[in-house]
Amino acid sequence: MRILVVRLSAIGDVVRTLPAVSLIRNRLPRAHIAWVTESVPAGALAHRDDLDEVIVFPPRLKELARNPLRWPGMVREFLAFMKGIRGRRFDVVLDFHGLFKSGIISLLAGGGERYGYARPFTKELNFLFNNRRTPLPPGKLTRIRRNLALARFFLGETDDGSIPEVYLHSSEGDRQEADRIEAEVLSGRRPRIIVHPGTSPQTPYKRWQPERFALTADMLIQRTGGEVLVTYGPGEEETAKQVVEAMQERGVLLPRTLTLTGLSELFRRADIYVGGDTGPMHVASFSGTPVVVVFGPTDRTENEPYPVTPYRMVFSETHCAPCRKRTCTDGTCFTDVTPEMAADAAMELLGEGRANVAGGSS
Questions:
Q1: What is the pTM of this model?
Q2: What string of H, E and C letters represents the secondary structure of the chain?
Q3: Options 3.40.50.2000, 3.30.160.270, 3.90.180.10, 1.10.1740.10; CATH of 173-352
Q4: What tens digit of pLDDT does each residue of 94-136 get?
């Protein structure tokens, strides 16, 4: 059987699809499983032995889509891309994304069975493109459990509540780079605390103030005698610098950006991760590192970290959350979350210790 998984973006959503794909691989060990995704989150799928193929959606198509005058060229290139996928002769397509663009890919891929979500769990009329629609129970589900529901529907299994244990993988190059960073900037003190304050430019509403991250980091150093490494992704370095500069204790800035699997390897070597509701938080959680997540306006049920890994969610109950307002007129969902709350949550996790997660090598 040849199976195509469709989950195009974003980093956190792609990572949270891994347990569903792991379940399918476990049940169908001889199947050919391919995954079509965008170029940035594709990095999280590197070095995996449960995937036979990662198909990267051409970044150029997104660039062409921004200019209506270039749409005819975009359509031609998209159809050429889809011709290549159709030529692989997939039997089944599993659309975990649930949008118009993923529905078009699912339809044009040519699989006889196209699995997606039933209404109202899709957007942009996605349900019209699939001929096998996964029913979901009423109420909110975490993204991980929703993805598992689709996988189990395809496999013909009932939901037993279990979640497969699966971690991001790293390469020998990732491990060597982590070794270099440890030698360059870290003292070796424990616990090692990762603070990741940034968010993507598209999600500033998820960003807790750098000064609060700095206060949290100071408290943890003072309470534990450990070391804080402040990490960042592309475009987030300035926010990370603001945290280090605002700290009273010594904070260490990540000396350079890393690949997603390189970042995962660095997270795996830490004792705890503190950050917001972002893709890197899910990367840390799927690296086996306990995480403290500072939630603002986003839905903490839907965006719960990987429950196989210990975590704490820090938040303030407000009348308006969850929401996705890009410009918020209230802001108490974040301002009412104090550094003490985040530091206390981190201390709880540090007190519990952590399991040794090998999970990682290719």
A1: 0.94
A2: CEEEEECCCCHHHHHCCHHHHHHHHHHCCCCEEEEEECHHHHHHHCCCCCCCEEEECCHHHHHHHCCHHHHHHHHHHHHHHHHHHHCCCCCEEEECCCCHHHHHHHHHCCCCEEEEECCCCCCCCHHHHCCEEECCCCCCCCHHHHHHHHHHHHHCCCCCCCCCCCCCCECHHHHHHHHHHHHHHCCCCCCEEEEECCCCCCCHHHCCCHHHHHHHHHHHHHHHCCEEEECCCCCCHHHHHHHHHHCCCCEEECCCCCCHHHHHHHHHCCCEEEEECCHHHHHHHCCCCCEEEECCCCCCCCCCCCCCCCEEEECCCCCCCCCCCCCCCCCHHHHCCCHHHHHHHHHHHHHHCCCCCCCCEC
A3: 3.40.50.2000
A4: 999 999 999 999 999 998 999 999 988 899 999 999 999 999 9
